[in-house]
Batch of 2 targets.
Target 1
Amino acid sequence: MSREPCAVIGVGQTRHASRRKDVSIPGLVREAALRALDDAGLTFADIDAVVLGKAPDTFEGVVMPELFLASALGAAGKPMMRVHTAGSVGGSTAIVAAHLIQAGVHERVLTVAFEKQSESDAMWALSPRIPFQPTLVAGAGGYFAPLVRSYIQRAGAPPHIGVEVAVKDRLHALRNPYAHLHMEGIDRAMVEASPMLWDPIRYLETCPSSDGACAMVLASERAARGAARPAWVRGTAMRSEPTMFAGRDAVNPRAGQDCAQALYREAGIDDPRRQLDTAEIYVPFSWFEPMWLENLGLADEGQGWRMTDEGATALGGRFPVNASGGVLSSNPIGASGMLRFAEAALQVRGMAGEHQVDGARNALGHAYGGGSQFFAMWIVSEERP
Amino acid sequence: MVDVAIVAFAQRPSVRNAVGDEVELVQPVIQQALEDAGLRASELGFVCSGSCDYLIGRPFSFVTALDAVGAWPPLCESHVEMDGAFAFYEAWVRLQHGDVDTALVYAFGRSSLGSLPIILSQQLDPYTVAPLFPDAISLAALQARALLDGGRATERDFAEVACRSRRAAEGNPNAQLRQSADVEALLGAACLRPPLRVHDCPPISDGACAMVLATGERARAIASARGRAPAWVAGVDHRIDPQDLGSRDLTRAPSAKLAAERAGAHRAPLDLAELHAPFSPQELILREAMGLGPQVAINPSGGALAANPMMVAGLTRVGEAALRIHDGRAGRALAHATSGPCLQQNLVCVLEAR
């Protein structure tokens, strides 16, 4: 049996901000869901199933919040699923939703991811005291800083690369009205002057904590027939590996490499550097741009930083990365991966507005999570598979 | 559709306070299920698990559980913050693609580490209901009261469900509560949360289980090598009702009814049904919703009243039904899983020998 074609026919996201005190959690997810439905020209009544994703429930203090959100998302009487795969969850949620279409189970699926970080303190929610284990880290930055240092040493990368990424993504965000951070006048001096949090990661090289949500309407070929500018899902892939064991390369993890190769195979991509036009890559700390470019095979090992340095990854460059401003500009954790997937879809639909990459036909959406161990990716295209 | 069958199922005995962390709980059952199916982790086309962080009060409990699979080389893997039965559903969907032919599904839950009825109260609307901390037993009692007030059941009916379940569990070495006083004696006990008595409520259980799925020829090959019938998935569906307790008729489970219809429960007679009804009145509601008459044996394993490891008990219903297909005790069986307060969300799966 071959897969049914699947298209993104609606995309919606909230205005992302530190504190969306103007909306409840149902209000937040509905803001994104209704925009996605509007974009698709549909209403909740047209939807067959809802797939919700978010990061740990401890971030809002609600156990399995999909249960109380069922009505707000129009899921009553329908199948509803809740995905949780750590930071990659926004991506894997979209993949679970796409698989429902590709398996021929449903015609139209609404997929939503959110985080309302202002309800708690994610850094401490990510730093639990576990009995009989030393508390090793202070938030995600404390975990990832040694990996960044290791990358810099291996690749012989000059120290300003992280700063360049931080500036570039915030400049991109100025073109994205939904982005959390709109930092007029951002430049290298501003980033360099910001406090060092986890050496070598400075405050402005770090993602913000955001409230926000993202939603997409996915449709079968039949249901997508009337849709203006669908983005076709050409391939999806997920890979996971354990957090730690002797010999694991956490800087350039094999799960990420395997995931990318499986993705390219499924999408029929032989030469991703030539055939992909842009990518939305999960970069929560600036240095992860060159690290993931290499892990994805979009740059040779040890050479990713050169792409950043040459300006190739900026809008107008030969391979723009995170034209939306990326995770560095908006980070509603559970939704951050889905935003990457959705922004990739907007690019190939030609609907990215001020941050549109000219002529984007094939785009990669990428998400990762845990200790660089969970990966979810898709490739969307203006062309039907 | 691609034909998918359950070819192996393993579970650990449910106990009140399991010794060990999640990895220690789940690793032996994963190992057992894989060995039973003659598979290595590296051969698996897909892996999916179900668990809930809040049970142990830390984020990402499923991350360490991945150690139990031996996910190296890296695996195609996903996780639902739901009962493992929904991970089973995700795996079934994934196998429909036809590019992979095996999947591992597992679930684990340590309900004993916190105050479970209060933890579950935090599934409710965080603005208007959860701050009142209505515990899970009290909510089930509201549901039971509505049944009594509607004249649809009696306290004796509840006690009969409890007695039958615990006595059925005498034959299930993995169950936690495996005996029951007779109905008269049960009815003599004081109420815990009126009208519920202790016997109407599930035990607090720690547990884990694992299942191997395979498609078509692969399923036939694995099963025949072990002298068992593959438990073919004839239909599977799940539905959710609104949570708002004030707007629901708590004595009905429309989502269970719909899921059973969609899963094709009544296309042919059923030999048995494994129902995930943690509280005794809920079995009555489910039987009515799914139209299960007296000819269908209910919960030969003892069901959730005999062992109720959170996030595991639903997948265990699917596994218990599959075991009875494997050895020919049943030809067609229904398995059900529930989630949320008062039977809010329901999954129904129909398994067949062919």
Target 2
Amino acid sequence: MKTKKALPFRVELIRQLKRKRTLVALILVIALPLIVVTAVKFGPSADDRAGGGGGGFGDGDLDLVGLATSGGWNFALTMMFFASGFLLLILVAMFMGDTVASEASWSTLRYLLIAPVPRRRLLSIKLAVALLLSFVSIVVLVGFSYLVGLFAFGSGNLSTPTAGVFSNSEALWRMTIISVYIFITLLFAAGIAFLLSVLTDVPLGAVGGAVVIVIVSNILDAIDALGDLRQWLPTDYGAAWIGALNREIDWTGMSRGVAYSVVSFIIFITIAYLRFDRKDITS
Amino acid sequence: MRFPRRSLALGSALVLGGSLLGGLVISPAAHAANEPEALRISGGPTSATDQTPVELDADLYLPEKVPAPAVVLAHGFGGDKSGSADQASQLTEAGFVVLTYSARGFGDSTGLISMNSPDFEVADASRLIDFLAQRTEVTQDSDGDPRVGFAGGSYGGALALLIAGYDDRVDALASDITWNDLESSLFGQSVEGSSQLGVYKNLWTGFFFSVGLRTTDGKVTRCGRFSPEWCAAYTESATTAQVTPAISMLMRESSPISVTDRITAPSLISGGQADSLFPLAQTNANAEQIMEASPQTPVSVLWHGMGHDGGTNEDERLETSITNWFKEYLQEAPESPSVTEPFEVTLTSGEISIQNNQPQPTVVAGANYPGLFGSEQQSIPVLGPPQQILSPAGASPAAISSIPGFGGSLAGNLGSFVTSSFPGQSAFFQSQPLDTATEIIGSSQVEIALSSEVAVTDAIFFLSLQVVGANGRANLPQGLVAPVRIDSLGSTPEVVTVDLPAIALTANAGDSLRLVVSTTDLAYRMPLDERLYTVAMAQSAISVPLVTGLTPVGGEDPTFAWLLLIIPALAIAGVILFVLRPREPKPLHVTESSDSLNESPVVIEDLYKTYKGGYQAVKGVSFEVPRGVVLGLLGPNGAGKTTTMRMMMGLIAPTQGEITLFGHPVFFGSPVLSRVGALVEGAGFLPHLSGRENLHLYWKASGRVGEPYFDEVLEIADLGTAIDRKVKAYSQGMRQRLGIAQAMLGKPDLLVLDEPTNGLDPPQIKSMREVMKSYADTGRTVIVSSHMLSEVEQTCSHVVVMHRGQLIATGKVADLLAGRTGGRLEDVFLDMIGEDLTVGQS
């Protein structure tokens, strides 16, 4: 009965990396900046742009998007802004929601458990790998967008709507904060997806369920009549990273957002573990 | 935590524009438990010729504890007493008697509007103090002298200053967004030291007057509710854009400037940055005049982000400041309120709020009031050649900076709306991008040289200071422009120093400052003939006001307190997971596990399994599997074979009973499972990988050590080159063979195969039999489940027969067959279970 640690992290990572959906996710985060930059550079409205700033995009109150073409940093920030609402949500829900449920649907779950991979270890490794893949897709999105932006619009400083410009080193610091914060806000959806993944044998159900919950929350968040009640919605803090674009970083919203996301993540994951501890695997 | 309100308009109580927006502002009725007492109070004389007192419509609010100091709330132009209800409730809760009333000519009060004339409106206010002197609920300083404060905004704010000047019974005042001098408010002149009449604020004045034209019966009249005197003064000024000495005198009497040297009551003087009607220069004049005349009088100056043009909603903060001001100066034992610092200013543009993506006001305060020009000045060079600009004929098209009465809906302070100006009408002078962020608080000053192609007697210019972002986008703070009028301008350049509008904002590093000199602005009266002017910088620099010693107040400190929630959450989750962790079950019989080699591979005792929903799949099964045999687990579909195997593998938990493998109890994930290889309910593989990759990854994932025997098991799988194809392309038989191969990886001591021959063709079945037999010959144990009797008969030496969840026979195949007439296992089985069942035939 001599055994090594069952299901090493590296093995699970290989098992996931060889999946086509991982490749598709990577292609998506790489394609998004390429599509956008093509549209801005060669699209129908490209000629209308006045020299200098703005252009190509609409400009709202925040006017963050209008700055997208002012350099690599701004382009990366804008891509983040575009992607954080839906693309990253889908990817994270996919990595987290599909991880256990797909094993169940392929019947490989029971062979891992028979190996035996202790149940908590199985969840822990799967959780770690799914979180890593989620984080990597954000890093790839930001990094690749930066490179695309650098190539297309040059190496500008990071321009912000109200706080002027940040130097390269400051921009790197701010973008790191924003990327990490966006990753953390996605933990709410990640936690739900992972819990659903343990509860169901249908991968699509787990991924879709998490996405639907977040979208419903987004819709509720848009209803002004709900007033302060909205601060209890998980998505109310999705935009708090704006605080990192102030001259002095405004941590208030972000610390609330981090607390909300991490605490809800802990709750969902705890339930997932408790459930999986006792679950009869019949699939 | 409070979230900023998304309000359309400012507090109706304080704003002149209140009546215009009246339809939009939903005023929550006074919800206090104590409804106000409605009163009609006699005011001053109706007019110079009619001494009958006007009747003032008033409400008296009483606090829980009386006697208490009183506060009189005066409303804005066009409003009435109802607009003050909210603030009255707040003050009542703070322990004040509050008197709200409608000024003469407004609401249900009688009389005509005299624009805060000392003889009329101010006299009315004195009568109100007389009234309070009669009330026992009001604290009295002496006979006929109640403890009373006056507060108001705009029209009411001027009254608060005037009554404090005329009636020394006023003990404290709070005056918001009001005028110091009506003439210089309505005729804007930004040339420093100029005594020349300024540029007539066409739109504002017209709007102002139109509000007072509304009559109670809806009839259209020439003067509406204005007194004949003021009606005539307006008509003349609006027609000529000039001011006669008599009108000038009339306006001065109604202006706080006439009394500020007499005010000794502690004064909270606030003004709005978003105010093109009564700009901060007016607020500043009120404050400085009081301070100069009476240095010992407590005066605090507050530049908030609101104003007649809208701005950022800070109603709550302002109302709290006012309440605290009166607590400090009217109540005997104030509960140490945080009184407004001598100088408080809101930096409106700057940080973005996360709640609504609107600029979040940052409030800073200082212990000294720096005045309009800062505690120090920084000279910022601006460049630009002398430029010719045209004042177009007909004064059209005109630039738009602010539109009076629209509550700032056009003048966003993020600069989303930048002044529209027309080609040839403006001269531009711009600075280099700033090296560091600069807080501009107050009026910047520039020295410019102006000349006109032909001599004119009313040269009019509008100067503005724009902040140009690094992206080239220009932002005109609060949409404010500085009007300049020069009575006589010819071809000889005239050098003037101009005070630019007072603002409070942070220009970021990378931003540039841009001075714009224009000839038109829609809000002002302009000459109708065309002129050609030349504009040049006399000093190529802007003097920017800086204020030192400011510290942030209020607001939320950057807090990480919420993050602390994560620690207990982690701790609780940790405890729950630790306490509720599944434990290794205690074996029913203590076994010498060290000697487990001699233990039976499988011992099942009294096993039950009831699935959720109540289906009992296994009912009291006990058997033991000896070492080195091939055991057949036999029974029709639904006999409980697979359920039993799942429990043996630790996939599902028995409802009752115990399974031990090699003497070790089985539970979820028990280590003893590493000695077992299994194929349960069909094979399971990662479809996107090849058979070979699947086996290798499974072996690595299993954590087992030792020799995996890849070559041998691949031979058994007999997949040929297909082993390197993706599993999703496999037939069922191929998957099945690969599944058996996977189960045999590492040659486990116990091999459990559930229906292994499913999907195999007869030659493969035959060779599989040999594999199993030879596997058992090595001393290892094989358990094969099947519903096919002939299969078991040919492969197995031992058999366990199950039916409907129960064990019906166990033993050697030979023993079971012995003594039976038929001699076939099939017949034996049918005998046992009765004739009601058809068993699969091979």
